[in-house]
Every structure is written in structure tokens, then in C-alpha cells.
Amino acid sequence: MATNVYTGLVAKVLAFGDVREKPFHLDDEHNYLADGFGLGHVPDLIRILEDNELAEWDSDAPEAWAQCHAWRILGQLRAVQAIVPLLNLLRYVDERDDDWVRDEVPVILAFIGADSLQPAADFLADTKNGLWSRIAAVATIEAIGNDYAEARSRCVQIVSQQLEQFAEQDEILNASLVDCLVELKAVEAAPLMERAFAAGYVDLTLRGDWEEIQIDLGLLKERLTPKRNWVAEALFGPGWLGADDDDGEDEWADEDEEDDEDQPALAEPRVVRQVVADPAKKKRKRKEAQKQRKAQRRKKKK
Length: 302
Prior knowledge:
Blueprint: H1 8-11, H2 42-49, H3 66-76, H4 83-89, H5 92-95, H6 99-112, H7 117-125, H8 131-147, H9 152-163, H10 171-183, H11 190-198, H12 204-207, H13 210-217, H14 230-236, H15 248-261, H16 279-301
Helix pairs in contact: 2-3, 3-6, 4-6, 6-8, 7-8, 7-9, 8-9, 8-10, 9-10
């Protein structure tokens, strides 16, 4: 039972319900503004973001999705007042393994505008924040850099400054920073990235080794050494048979399925808002949303 009370139009947010299977495009998805939401509703919508009880509801309850609707409305309103509360939600990625926050909130922050950049940079730099929360902040900076050409140089500078600390950071965070720089086509940061790889402080399972990065940046035409399956090597060790075969993943999947057949059935766990989806599908959705946002800005300039 919810203890916080919401009234008027904002109360309807708690009843909008499940957003699964609904493509997320801020430009052509549910037009919340047509429902009557305006800047006057921002304080109460922020209250929903900060209502920790809502994230604890079972996923079948409409209340479980209220925060998702609230941040989408705030995005459509371009509510700069919501930037810090939205960044605070990123902590859910570590605390609750919340994939909805991880996938959507960075996009919302970018949609609100470049005003989100410095707060996102501050969040990234704060080592008190969890690893995956900080990686979500990197995704926010990447989205801003891709969406606003005038902010791209500053985004590259922020991410590069963070990567300068590669020797003191988790290798996965370093890999995410490298991934961001590659997505921003930051050739100017190549020497820094090379140093991080040469020192062995970059997780290779995310985007590959330095040769792969050079190819992605257009600095190298093709590999100088045989291609390797870094995920397989991370799981089974260097020299694993099939480690250079991209199809090796299917072999482990088959083995896992055989092992699962011998295991007793387990009770269904309680499901809250977390849903793990295909990473490639998530990236496609992020790119599609980015195109939609750019198209809308072009329309507004006409």
C-alpha cells in the first residue's frame, strides 16, 4: 500500500500501467502533454521519481511503472528542475539492478538538453556512486554528445579527463569510457586510449582490444593479429578452443541448456520492474530514439 498521496492529474500516473513492449521514442510515443501535463506538474512528478516505494511494487501492478511514466513526462516537458532527481535515480542501477533506469534515464536527460551535461559529469566523477550507476552517467554524456553538436567537444573532454584516471578505476568503467569516446568519434583521444590499453586497464569484453578500437576510429584498416573472442577468453581463459570464433557463444549456450535439463525446477521469483533485454536490441532502440530527437529539433527550427 502506497503511503504517499498524489492528487489530480498526477494521480493518474500511478494508473497508466505497464510500459513493456511499448517502443520508447519520446517524439512519437504517448503524448503526455496532450493529456494536460505541463510545467506546473513538475514538482509532483519529481515527488514520484523520489518515491522509493513505487519501485518496490510487483511488475504486474500499475504503480510499478509510475516512475517510468513520470520521467517520460518530465522529458517531454524538458524539465531542467528534474535533472538532479533523475541523476539520483541512476543509483537504482546498482542498488536494484534496475534496467529501466539504466536504459531510459540517460536518454531522458539528453532529451531535456545540454543542461544535463555538467551534473552528469559531476555524478560520474563522484567515486561514492556505484560502478554501474557511473557507467549510466557515461551513457548520459554520450547521448548528449551525439544529440548536441555544440556539446560534443565538452563531452569528449569530460570523458577523457575521467579516463586519465584509468589506473585507479575499474576496468569495466574504463571500457565504457573508451566506448563513449569511440561513439563520439573522438580520434583526438586516441593516444590516451592507447595508453590505457597498453597498461592493461581496459576490459576487453565490451569492445575488444586496441586494434578493434583503431579500426572503429578509422585509424586502422584491418587487424594486424588474429581476431580473438574476448568474452570466451574471459570465461574460459586464454587459448580456449574456439576463442577466436564469434560463434563460440552458441556452443556454451547449448552446454548450458543441457545442464539446465538436469536441474530441478525452481519457484518463480518475485518480479519487480527489472527486465533484462537483448543488448543489441537496446542499442538499436537508443540509436532510433536519437534519430527521432534530432528530427524533432530540425522540425522546430523550421
